Amino acid sequence: MGFGVGGGHIGPMHSSAQINTASGLPFAGIPDEMRERAESILTEEPEHPSDEVDFEHVPPAEPPLSLRTLLAPYRRRVLLVLGLVVAETLAVQAGPLLTRIGIDYGVLPGRFDLLGVVSGVYLATVLCHVWAGRSRTSLGGRLGEQIMHGLRVKVFSHLQRLSLDFYTRERAGVVMTRMTSDIEALTMLLQEGLVLMIVQGLTLVTITGVIFYLDPTLAGLAIGVVAPAALLSSLWFRRVSEEGYGRVRDRIADLLSDLSENLAGIRVITATGRRRQNVVAHRNRIGHHEEANMATARVSTIYGSGTEGVGIIAQAVVLGTGGWFVIRGSLSLGELTAFALYLTAFFAPIQQLVNLYNAYQQGQASVVKLRELLKTPVDVPEADDAEELPPVAGRVTLEDVTFSYEPGTTVLSGVSLDVPAGSSLSIVGETGAGKSTIAKLAARFYDPDSGCVRIDGRDLRGVRLESLRRQLGVVPQEPFLFADTIRSNIIFARDDIDPEEVDEACRAVGLDKLLDTLPAGLDTFCHERGASLSSGERQLLALTRALLAKPRVLILDEATSNLDLRTEALIERALDVLLEGRTAIIIAHRLATAMRADRIAVVDDGRIVEAGTHDELLAADGRYRQMYETWVAHSEIRHDDGGASVKPGTGVPAK
């Protein structure tokens, strides 16, 4: 049995496979017939770097991201790779020179002994080339993976460090692009691209030196034809491709952002019949991405074919001139043969460098995007002199707080509140009045523009965030559940918890009755975002998670909204357990929930207009009384299943 899918009430449970099949979701788990094979694969997994990461809320002082800063910590291994590159290049380029010696001093004079020596040396250079190439590929590949491992951790750590305001502004798909296609493009460049560019560049330099040694006249002629055209076309290609690959990265970000949004909103899309329109919109984004790629492809084609044409012309000129030199006797046949072989090899690196320059430009475009991300400032920073927050009693104070999400648009103005330790405060008001903003400031998801927020008299801006989060619990209106087991989700805030404590918390909240019907109990798998669970089930899991975290201060952001009366009653019983002995700030949509608090504050247009107990506010005949009378008027028309009217906020029949 498992958690049922449906409305707000808690009903019969089924297995995760049944749940997901019924919901149209993919199967969440490993089939029994594949489990043994999966476990055997895991035993063969290679060793991975340690997962111990030193995370600090203060970004480390580091130079801006670039290829140089990425490679700097690995100087010795980079130099070793370069040494292997040199050995590989010299070994492979010794061939034509040995061919010239073999022809001029072995074949033509008939000295087969010398020809044998040359052949042996040639074989040795081939073996050296194979060994150096294999070692360079292996070492370079491992080095590239290690660098990218560190970069992925750095980028992900910075994403964890960034404040909620960043995720409000930025689209999820754009962030995903930084961690996927941008890093993948950089991975290709670091693992093979840079090394091959060095190989081909060194090959070009080596060949240039050798052909000038063989015949300066022919070499000058070849370089004179190639160099000006190659230089001008490369300068043009660099400028155009830089812009082109920047556009490609932006179009990929748009594409993934739209994909991410469609996957997250698939239920709304299905319910509103927007599939066809969304396919058209996504096809347009794919078209923009294709256009950006086609533009860079056209530029690459012009550059590549132009360079190849220049090379062919240079070969024709050199072979014609060199043949005339041989006939005239100023150049030997072996020298012309070696020169022709080197000249053929001379244009191959140029073509390779053209292709590799594409990869380099893509990698550089990715570096720019990642550098911009890593330079994004933390809007809620931890002060350099921040102190550890000791165990708190839980008094929360807002002192003349003013706040705005965007400059010029004030959300809260001059808000002052005092919540004594161990007491509860409900905050009520119309939608958009600023209720949830107060909760976010109390949790230090944002910092006020002016004024301050204190806990036990300490300004939140002066304490270490880790020590604050350990003593603060937040239960949102829509709790987030990860694609993992129920156990992993409820112990998310504490991974060192005893199983007995987990069972006790489940019993206290009322989750144990639900778990008893599950075949796997706490080890039942739930789908990402808790899509296979009802809203009431998700809320119970979130409350159990909060109870296990043992916070001193608890913030409930409309935690009982969107629930039917029966589920709401169950959740409120769990809240009674959770709130006992803790300071609580409750953002209430329903006045039935608000009345459970010791005191109530009314927010209107970003200001606290009233505060007091339920009875005091009714007697004051102000904004709260108006809200209460409106709520009562709407509540009295509701009926229970038998047709009897019910008391407002209770769910029991009225007299």
Task: Outline the fold blueprint.
Elements: H1 16-23, H2 32-43, H3 67-71, H4 75-107, H5 112-161, H6 164-169, H7 172-214, H8 216-264, H9 266-271, H10 275-328, H11 333-374, E1 396-403, E2 412-419, E3 424-429, H12 435-442, E4 450-455, E5 458-459, H13 465-469, E6 472-475, E7 484-485, H14 486-490, H15 499-509, H16 512-515, E8 525-526, H17 535-549, E9 553-557, H18 565-579, E10 583-587, H19 591-594, E11 599-604, E12 607-612, H20 614-620, H21 623-635
Parallel strand pairs: 3-10, 3-11, 6-9, 9-10
Antiparallel strand pairs: 1-2, 1-4, 4-5, 7-8, 11-12
Helix pairs in contact: 4-5, 4-7, 4-11, 5-7, 7-8, 7-11, 8-10, 8-11, 10-11, 15-17, 17-18, 20-21
Could you characterize what this model shows?
Helix 4 (75-107) runs antiparallel to helix 11. This protein starts with 15 loop residues before the first helix and ends in a 20-residue tail after the last helix. It folds into two domains: 67-245 and 304-374, ABC transporter transmembrane region fold (Up-down Bundle), CATH 1.20.1560; 396-635, 3-Layer(aba) Sandwich (Rossmann fold). The longest helix is centred in the middle third of the chain and has 54 residues, at 275-328. The protein has 655 residues and is of the alpha/beta class. It is elongated and about 120 Å long. Strand 1 (396-403) and strand 2 (412-419) form a beta hairpin. The protein has helices at 16-23, 32-43, 67-71, 75-107, 112-161, 164-169, 172-214, 216-264, 266-271, 275-328, 333-374, 435-442, 465-469, 486-490, 499-509, 512-515, 535-549, 565-579, 591-594, 614-620, 623-635, and strands spanning 396-403, 412-419, 424-429, 450-455, 458-459, 472-475, 484-485, 525-526, 553-557, 583-587, 599-604, 607-612. The protein is built from 21 helices and twelve strands.
